[in-house]
Design brief:
With about 300 residues, this protein is of the alpha/beta class. The protein has 11 helices and 15 strands. The protein is globular, with a radius of gyration of 19 Å.
């Protein structure tokens, strides 16, 4: 199977390529046009393309995996950064949908990114893919339009949208940023710590993408989260215990507001998201609970 992938040099994309390099052939859209052997390995069948502009259609591909986008939590949300976050996702996804629509033999599947931020802040409600009472904040706006762009080609191919939670990996992403403070015994909850964190181990994340890629009955929206979300306080307690460190500190809400501005909403509010459709499709999670996930990541 030949796959066109965007976001292939990010955490999820590069992990997927490295795990399934013997199974699939990849064309990766990347501005890093140099030698990517160190990122993907010598045996990975990866070709790097710098632009989609040379493509008139996607007849040569059996699948498209679309994971690209400006990182949402790297910088304060100025108006310029909000524009970059949105349009880096919307424009590319729109372009991919158009190319699929222009194909005579379109890809069999279009796997496209989104996030649990689609639901907005939801308190203690248990959220499945059927949930429609969303909270209309910035994270919802990003995902709503992003998903709409991906569905523009649903009459030509099978579309699976990944509403992804916090992806746990010790070398990249949120967990890596949290580890230094917790290793020094300075980690702790954000504000009250009652907000839910819907997370997923990187291994389950890439396995779920592969599962959706190869199961023709799967289409529509999927929550890419572990079956057992935890509160922020529980997450911090389990992480500290895994590292054999105290869990005493607290980051007050007003400090987060000073440090991050509007982006502090990502840390102060959350969603209790359940991957109902994946479970009904009989996807098996390797790391369904946080204790085993963190132990695997940090003790291996």
């Amino acid at each position: 199977m030949k796959i066109l992938m965007t976001g292939g040099t990010g955490l999820i994309g590069s992990t997927f390529i490295n795990k399934f390099s013997s199974k699939y052939q990849f064309d990766v859209l990347s501005r890093q046009t140099g030698d990517l052997t160190s990122r993907f390995g010598n045996d990975a069948k990866v070709n790097v393309i710098s632009s989609l502009n040379s493509l008139k259609n996607l007849d040569d591909y059996q699948a498209v995996i679309n994971l690209a986008g400006e990182p949402i939590a790297e910088k304060r949300w100025s108006q310029k950064q909000k524009h970059n976050i949105c349009h880096s996702r919307w424009n590319l996804t729109n372009q991919l949908s158009k190319l699929i629509n222009d194909s005579t033999t379109p890809p069999n599947a279009f796997i496209s990114g989104s996030a649990v931020g689609f639901y907005g802040r939801q308190g203690n409600e248990t959220i499945t893919e059927q949930w429609t009472d969303v909270y209309p904040e910035f994270s919802h706006k990003i995902c709503k339009v992003w998903e709409e762009k991906s569905l523009l080609c649903q009459h030509k191919t099978r579309v699976c949208i990944l509403r992804t939670g916090i992806v746990l990996d010790k070398n990249k992403g949120a967990l890596k940023k949290m580890l230094p403070a917790f290793k020094f015994g300075l980690g702790g909850r954000f504000s009250t710590g009652t907000q839910f964190m819907s997370w997923i181990h990187i291994e389950d994340m890439v396995n779920a993408i592969d599962f959706l890629l190869n199961n023709q009955q799967c289409q529509g929206h999927f929550n890419l989260t572990a079956p057992k979300p935890v509160t922020n306080q529980e997450f911090c307690q389990i992480l500290a215990k895994t590292l054999h460190r105290p869990n005493l500190a607290t980051m007050p809400a007003f400090v987060l507001r000073i440090l991050f501005g509007e982006m502090a909403d990502l840390f102060l509010y959350g969603q209790k998201v359940i991957p109902e459709k994946l479970l009904l499709a009989n996807f098996k999670f390797t790391h369904p609970n946080l204790q085993s996930a963190l132990h695997h990541l940090l003790k291996s």
